[in-house]
Amino acid sequence: MNRYNNTYPDLIQNVVFSLDESDTGIIDVSFEYELPRSIFKFETKLSDAVNITTASGFVNNDGRWVWDQSSTELKLDGKYRLSENTSEGAYYVDAGEWAITNAPSQSSDWRYRGLKPKLIKNCRVEGGGIASPDGAVVFLGEHEVIENSNPVQNLMLVLPAASDLVELPSEIFEAIEHTSQYLDVGGYGGEVLMIAAGSDEARWGALGLQSGNSGFWTLDRCRLNQPGSTWIHEYVHTRQTPTFEPSMEWFTEGSACYYAALCSIQLGHISFAEGREFLKTSVDPDAVVRNPETWNTTSTKYTKGRRVVAALDCKIRDHTNNSTDLRDVWRFLNRRYETAGYDEFLTALRIVVPSPSKVIKWTDHYLNGTETPPLPRDPATFGLAQ
Ligand SMILES: [Zn+2]
């Protein structure tokens, strides 16, 4: 476990969670490190939300945990206080008997000789629970897991004992499977954790939240027969590979809303008219979509964002006789960029769309200006069969 790793030149960081049932709002967390021989200095800085109670092999130097350079057992045990009480409500909750959380932030620094060590991060739960591979979504407590595997992804639906799912798991899997295939844009995490959070168990700040590469929670009362299905919306986020800059927030949320609506129409959960009504929202009409500073509300990325995304998909389809659509642009962004802003989006359009000048002009007009794009009335324009 926590000792020199002689076999491989890897640096291994394990985060281990467990419930502290004596206290709500606080969970137990441990950080374990395995250092290869090549490393001769190592230190780590943890989130302020973590209070270390026992340190092995480390000394505290002004908030940084510094390896004493002789110990082979490197471990920090502590208490992690979840920031539950935002004005909108909670995004992570510890109710004592169960918790939904994410891994606290940590940044480590090291010096080495010879071969550069590769950092391997792991996350696990002790005493009941499950974590997404990157630790960005973690459930602690009594639960059941239903798995559904396909050739590209292993979908894991987590049903906490304190949840009461209103949809059938099979219906949720069908919706996510369909969306997974329709969005052939790459960016597949091999495993996706989908937690049904108990709606009545906390004052939640959202209907769902995706975090990291491969996990999200959605409230157990969320339905599939709604235009902006939270189950599909949060799943769509897991397929957005680049870190998007503020100039792309309209795409991050707009595409999650748009493809949730489009896939729900394809699945027959909602009618085209209901989907189109959801997409043609005219909230915050004066906002310049690519510039969040011009928005009247932070929800503009969801409202005008989804209308612009929908209209742009139709514009690209119309321009290319349905041979290219917005998924092709997204696939390019997923493949090419770790971080992407509006300029990278324009580059993707130029490369992916044949004879792109009219589409670029359209995009510049509606994303850099205040005018709201018209939304076509014909389902075929959205690539939908009549
Ligand atoms: Zn979202």
Order of helices and strands: EEEEEEEEEEEEEEEHEEEHEHHHHEHH
Rounded radius of gyration (Å): 23 Å
Main sheet: strand order: 4-7-2-1-11
Hetero groups bound? zinc ion
Q: Which percent range fits the helix content?
A: 25-40%
Q: Proportion of β residues?
A: 25-35%
Number of domains: 3
Q: What's the rounded overall pLDDT mean? A: 94
Question: Could you say which structural class the secondary elements and strand pairing correspond to?
Answer: alpha+beta
Write the CATH homologous superfamily of the largest domain. Answer: Neutral Protease Domain 2
Tell me the CATH topology of the largest domain.
Neutral Protease, domain 2
CATH architecture heading of the largest domain: Orthogonal Bundle
Described by strand count, sense and barrel closure, the largest sheet is:
5 strands, mixed
| The top level CATH class name of the largest domain | Mainly Alpha
Supply the number of helical segments.
8
Give the termini distance in whole angstroms: 59 Å
Characterise the protein shown here.
This protein is an alpha+beta fold. The chain has three domains: 3-132, Immunoglobulin-like; 142-238; 240-386, Orthogonal Bundle (Neutral Protease, domain 2). Helices cover 25% and strands 28% of the residues. The protein contains eight helices and 20 strands. It has helices at 169-182, 230-237, 249-266, 272-279, 303-319, 326-336, 342-352, 357-367; strands spanning 10-19, 26-34, 39-46, 50-56, 58-61, 64-67, 74-81, 93-94, 99-101, 106-112, 118-125, 129-131, 138-140, 143-149, 154-160, 191-197, 208-210, 215-219, 243-244, 339-340. A hairpin with a 4-residue loop joins strand 17 (208-210) and strand 18. Helix 1 packs across helix 2 and helix 6 (326-336) crosses helix 7. Zinc ion is lined by residues 233, 237, 253, 256.
